[in-house]
Design brief:
This protein is of the alpha+beta class. The protein has one domain (3-516): Creatine Kinase, Chain A, domain 2 (2-Layer Sandwich). The protein contains 18 helices and 14 strands. The strands form four sheets. Strands 1, 2, 3, 4, 5, 11 and 12 form a seven-stranded antiparallel beta sheet that branches. It has a three-stranded antiparallel beta sheet with strand order 6-8-7, with no helix packed on it. A hairpin with a 2-residue loop joins strand 9 (276-277) and strand 10. Helix 5 crosses helix 11. The longest helix has 24 residues, at 479-502. The model has no long low-confidence stretch (mean pLDDT 94). Pathway: Sulfur metabolism; glutathione biosynthesis; glutathione from L-cysteine and L-glutamate: step 1/2. This is Glutamate--cysteine ligase.
C-alpha cells in the first residue's frame, strides 16, 4: 500500500462508526419484453403508476425501458432486499410480459417503431420526452435500448475531514475528495470491467447489419472471444460530438466549466437537424449536449437538484453530494441485476479510490492512458497475457489486478470490521479467483453457457428472464408490500395529474426558462 492509503485507513479504523454512515443506492434498467423476448410496444403499465412521478419505478429512454430506483441504505443487505421487492412488484404486475435481465437488448422492432418514453402532457413531462427525441436524432433509438446498473455512493460529511482532504471549507474538502475519487476511479475502472463485465455477446439483430468486426457464434449471436463488456465498448453510446469531450477531472470548477461549454456550444450536424420538424420539437437545442445528463461517462459527480435547477448550478453552489457509477453491466444471474459479492466489492473499491493517493492528470485534466486501458479491457480483457499501461510502462492485466486487489482487500477488511459484515472479505476472495482463472468471470461463463447449451444469446436470456420472473411471482408480495405498491402507484398518477393541471405557460416558454436557468459557473 502507499503511505497515504495505509495512513488514511488507520485513521478511519480509529473512527469505526464513520463508514457505517455511508449511503448507497441502485438504479437498474431493463426492457419490457413479451414471452418471445421481443420489445414491448405497449404503454407503461398503469399498475406501475406514473413514470413521471413514481419515486421508485420509472422509464429511461424507451417507453419499454423500465428503471427501478432504490432508496439509500447504510447496509448492502437492506439495499438488495429493496431491489428484490421492486423486482417482485414488476414481475407480479406485467402479466404476459417480463423484464429482460441483460444489458444488451432483446430483439427490437424497426428503428422507427421503438417507442420513446412518454411522461404526459405537462411541461415537465414534455421536456423529458423531447430530450429523448433528441437522443434518437443524435444516437439512434437502437443504441438507447442498452441497459445498465448504476451504483450511487456517498460518504458521511465528516469522512473528508477525518482523512484530511485539502480545502478551506467543508464543502471544498468534500468536492475535492470526490474529484480525487473520480480520478482514481478513471485510472482503475478497467478492473471492474474485467471482474463484472457480462456482455461479451449480442444478438445480430441489434447491430442492424453492422458487424463491427465481431465473430459469429451462431446465426443470431455475435461476440468477441475475450470481451468482457461490449456494452461499454464502441458498440455503445458513441458519436463524434461526444468523442470531442475530454472533461477535466482535476477539480470540480474545471469539470463544470467543461460541461457548461458542452451544453452551450452548437454542434454543426445538430444545427442541420434543427430543434423542430413539421412544427414539433425534436431536440431541446443543437449544442454538443442538450443537457448535462447526456454526457455518457463511467462515473459522474452528482448533487440533488431543486425545481428547475440545472445540475451544473447545483454542483457549483453546493458541491458534490455523491458519485454515480455507471459502467456496471447487469448481472444476468441475479434478478436484482447485482450480486452481494459485487456490491460489497464496489463499496471497497470506492473506499480505495477515495483513500489512495490521486495525482492530478495532465494539463487537460484527462487521462488518455486510462481511457485506452478501459477500451482494451472491455474488448480483450480475458486475452492471455494482455498488457496495459501504468504510468507509461507496460504491465500485465493479471499482475496489476492482483496488486490492486491486495490494496482493495485492506479497504474491504476495514469495511467488514466497521460494519461487522464478513461479506466484504468474501467478496475479495471471489474476485481473486476471477483473476487466477479468467474462465470464472461472468463474461466467460456467459459464452460457455451459450456454447454448452447450444443456444443463441437471445434465447438464453429469454429462458433466464422467464425463470427469474417465475421465481419472483411464486414468492409474491406480502399483503403490506402489495398495499404499499398500489398506494405508491395511485399517488404517482394523482401527482402527475396535479402537475398537468397546474401548468400555466406554453411549452415553448418553459423550454426557454429551462435554458435560461443554466448559469455559467462562477468561482471565488
Amino acid at each position: 500500500m502507499s503511505v497515504t492509503l495505509s495512513q488514511r485507513l488507520e485513521i478511519l479504523r480509529q473512527k469505526p462508526d464513520m463508514l457505517g454512515k455511508s449511503l448507497r443506492g441502485i438504479e437498474k434498467e431493463g426492457l419490457r419484453v413479451n414471452s418471445e423476448g421481443r420489445l414491448s410496444t405497449r404503454a407503461h403499465p398503469k399498475s406501475l403508476g406514473s413514470a413521471l412521478t413514481h419515486p421508485r419505478i420509472t422509464t429511461d429512454y424507451s417507453e419499454a425501458l423500465l428503471e427501478l430506483i432504490s432508496g439509500t441504505h447504510t447496509r448492502i443487505d437492506d439495499l438488495l432486499a429493496e431491489m428484490a421487492e421492486l423486482q417482485t412488484v414488476i414481475a407480479c404486475s406485467l402479466n404476459d410480459e417480463m423484464m429482460w435481465n441483460h444489458s444488451m437488448p432483446a430483439h427490437l422492432p424497426a428503428e422507427i417503431d421503438i417507442p420513446i418514453a412518454w411522461y404526459g402532457t405537462s411541461n415537465t413531462g414534455m421536456l423529458k420526452h423531447v430530450y429523448r427525441r433528441g437522443l434518437a436524432e443524435r444516437y439512434g433509438k437502437t443504441m438507447q435500448c442498452i441497459a445498465g446498473l448504476h451504483y450511487n455512493f456517498s460518504f458521511d460529511e465528516q469522512f473528508w475531514q477525518i482523512i484530511d482532504v485539502p480545502g478551506i471549507s467543508a464543502q471544498d474538502k468534500r468536492s475535492a475528495g470526490y474529484m480525487a475519487l473520480i480520478r482514481n476511479f478513471t485510472r482503475y475502472s478497467w478492473l471492474l470491467m474485467y471482474l463484472f463485465g457480462a456482455s461479451p455477446a449480442v444478438s445480430k439483430d441489434f447491430l442492424r447489419g453492422r458487424d463491427k468486426g465481431l465473430d459469429q457464434l451462431d446465426a443470431d449471436t455475435l461476440f468477441l472471444p475475450y470481451a468482457t463488456s461490449l456494452r461499454m465498448s464502441d458498440l455503445g453510446y458513441q458519436n463524434k460530438a461526444q468523442a470531442t469531450l475530454k472533461p477535466c477531472y482535476n477539480d470540480l470548477n474545471s469539470f463544470l466549466l467543461s460541461m457548461h461549454k458542452a451544453v452551450t456550444t452548437p454542434w454543426p450536424p445538430y444545427n442541420e437537424i434543427g430543434t423542430h420538424r413539421n412544427g414539433e420539437w425534436i431536440q431541446l437545442n443543437t449544442n454538443v449536449l442538450q443537457i448535462e445528463n447526456e454526457f455518457y461517462s463511467s462515473i459522474r459527480p452528482k448533487r440533488a437538484t431543486g425545481p428547475c435547477e440545472r445540475p451544473i448550478t447545483a454542483l457549483a453552489d453546493r458541491g458534490i453530494q455523491y458519485v454515480e457509477i455507471r459502467c456496471l453491466d447487469i448481472d444476468y444471474k441475479e434478478a436484482t441485476g447485482i450480486s452481494s459479492d459485487t456490491a460489497h466489492f464496489v463499496d471497497a473499491f470506492i473506499l480505495f479510490c477515495a483513500t489512495q493517493d490521486s495525482p492530478y492528470f495532465g494539463d487537460d485534466g484527462f487521462c488518455a492512458e486510462s481511457a485506452d486501458n478501459f477500451a482494451k479491457t472491455v474488448k480483450y480483457g480475458r486475452q492471455p497475457g494482455l498488457i496495459l499501461k501504468r504510468d507509461g510502462a507496460d504491465i500485465s492485466l493479471k499482475d496489476w489486478a492482483n496488486h490492486l486487489l491486495s490494496q482493495i482487500g485492506e479497504c474491504a477488511n476495514l469495511f467488514g470490521d466497521c460494519l461487522a459484515d464478513p461479506s466484504y472479505v468474501k467478496a475479495i476472495s471471489s474476485q481473486q479467483q476471477k483473476v487466477a482463472d479468467p474462465e470464472s468471470t461472468p463474461s466467460a461463463q456467459l459464452l460457455s453457457s451459450l456454447q454448452q447449451k447450444e443456444m443463441s444469446f437471445h434465447d438464453f436470456v429469454v429462458d433466464l428472464s422467464k425463470q427469474q420472473a417465475a421465481v419472483l411471482q411464486a414468492k409474491g408480495l406480502t399483503f403490506e408490500q402489495g398495499k404499499q405498491a398500489d398506494a405508491q402507484a395511485m399517488e404517482s398518477i394523482l401527482t402527475q395529474e396535479r402537475i398537468e393541471n397546474a401548468d400555466s405557460e406554453t411549452f415553448d416558454d418553459y423550454v426557454k426558462q429551462f435554458h435560461e436557468a443554466l448559469k455559467a459557473p462562477t468561482f471565488a
